[in-house]
Structure formats: C-alpha cells, structure tokens
Amino acid sequence: MVEVSSEELLLWIQNINKEEDRDSLYLLIDLLGGISRSEINSLKIKPQKVINMKVSLDSLSKNWKEFIQNKKPIQYLSNSCYWRDLNLEVNKHVLIPRVETEQITDIVSNLISDSTKELLITDLGTGSGAIAISLALKSSLWTVLATDIEQNAINLAGKNFKKYSNTNNLKLFCGTWWQPLKKYAGKIDIAISNPPYIPLKVYKNLPISVKNYEPQIALNGGDDGLLHIREIIKEAPKYLKKDGWLLLENHFDQAQKVKTLMLHYGFESIEIIKDLYGIGRFTIGRYK
C-alpha cells in the first residue's frame, strides 16, 4: 500500500482531470488505486491526512497517460472490471463484460418459476466467466457448464469464481461452443451465449480502444455477424431438454434474423427482448 494525503490526491485529480474524461479517471482511481468515487467525494468534505492506496500517484499518472494516448481501456490497465455486483479479473484473452449483458442474468431468473428446482445451465463462450459466475452464485441447486475456445479464458473464469465461491456448481470446459458437452446431450435446461456477432465490415471500423485490445475471436462474427449464432442454434436441439430454452445476445439489427433461424431449427415461444437502451439485444426461444 502507498500512503498519500487526501490533499495530494485531490490536487492530483484537479491537475489531471478533463471534464469529458471524469468518469474514466474515477474508474482508474477505483480499479487501480482502490479508492472509490464516493470515498473521494467524502474526502472533499472531510479530508484525511493519510490514505492508503494500492499504487502511487506516479503509477496512476503513467496509466492515465496510456489511456489517453493509446486508448487502452481502464479495465485492461487495471486487469479488473465491475459487472453487476462482481469485481472480475480481465486480461487480453477475454472481452470486457458490457453493462448491457448484465440483463442476461435477470432474463434467466425470470424463466425459473421454482427456485428450489435443480437446473443444468450452459454458458457458451464464457470469457471471464461473468454470466456463468453470476448464475452459479444465485443458487447452489443450479449447475452451470461454461465453455470457451480459449484455455486462458477458462483458467481466468475459474480464478474469478473461486474469489466468490467455494462450491463446485460451476464446471469449466475448453472447446468450441457445444463440443465439450457431448455427455450432457439432451440434458440442458437453459443455454446462454453472448457470442461474437459483429459483422466483419463493422468490426474493421471499431474504435482502436476495442480493436487494438479486445480479442478479435470474441467479437468478429463473420461477414454477416451470424457465423457463430448459426452454429449455436443448429446444434442446440442435440443438447437441450424438451422445452429447454436458448438465450442469445445479438447485434442491434440481428434479432429478426436470429428469430428466423430459431424457427427453422424447431424453436417456439420466441421473444425478442430489448436492452436498457431500447435495442432488441436478446433473442430467446424454447425448443419443442
């Protein structure tokens, strides 16, 4: 820990801060320095002679410079990310979990009428483990099977889960989508995926803060963005129980196409769910 005074910290913020980057600066101080925005606001009212920070102000300055000059996301600079009520470790092998994806946990919870029922849930392409961990923590009666093509992501997801739980209801598998789950064929109650769905042309024009740092394999969905979504939907009937659910996150303009694909492969009760910004971000269907 590094000791600084509240006066030093507040002066540093005043000298470095630009109005348009205020949220990013406070996030950096929180994730890297260990001092939250609310704590900083308290210091303005009631200063302290000594504050214990995880890193020095010089270190914060260097990281802030990299954020401004190279557009490296704060989450990768600090190797951590807030998501729902979790603080997850992230690195170059996984996407930064997005706020809109947080809604998936609520959608799944709304599907389940009996909280005392044992369920088998799958998270395909788990990355940092955000979705899988949030569901595994909701109930010890739910077994969550999480897959990812990247072994480094699987290792990270396991590490993140151990931070919050000593149970064994999250099981991690390295492989492509459904492929590692063959022994669970026909047994899965709910399958979820936030797959790569960005069309190639759109991907090529993403800001450098995304394209230069986040893994392409987790973003690029092929020419029309539906390459992986097609594969997931096509294989889903082999793995889902009768009346099992498939929930997919998709690009802002893909929901109707995803719905058509689900209908083609035997899904019913298909619903397009809007995210907090009013975009049809999630498509859910029941396999009959």
Structure, explained:
With 288 residues, this protein is of the alpha/beta class. It has two domains: 2-78, no CATH class; 81-287, Rossmann fold. 40% of the residues lie in helices and 22% in strands. The strands form three sheets. It has a seven-stranded mixed sheet with strand order 7-6-5-8-9-11-10, with helices on both faces. A two-stranded antiparallel sheet has the order 1-2. The protein is elongated and about 65 Å long. The model has no long low-confidence stretch (mean pLDDT 95).
Unreliable runs, pLDDT <50, ≥5 residues? none
CATH architecture of the largest domain: 3-Layer(aba) Sandwich
CATH superfamily label of the largest domain: Vaccinia Virus protein VP39
Based on CA inertia axes, which overall geometry fits? elongated
Helix content: 25-40%
Q: Into which percentage range does the β-strand content fall?
A: 15-25%
Order of helices and strands: EHHHEHHEEHEHEHEEHHHEHEE
Structural class: alpha/beta
Distance between the termini: 57 Å
The strand count comes to 11
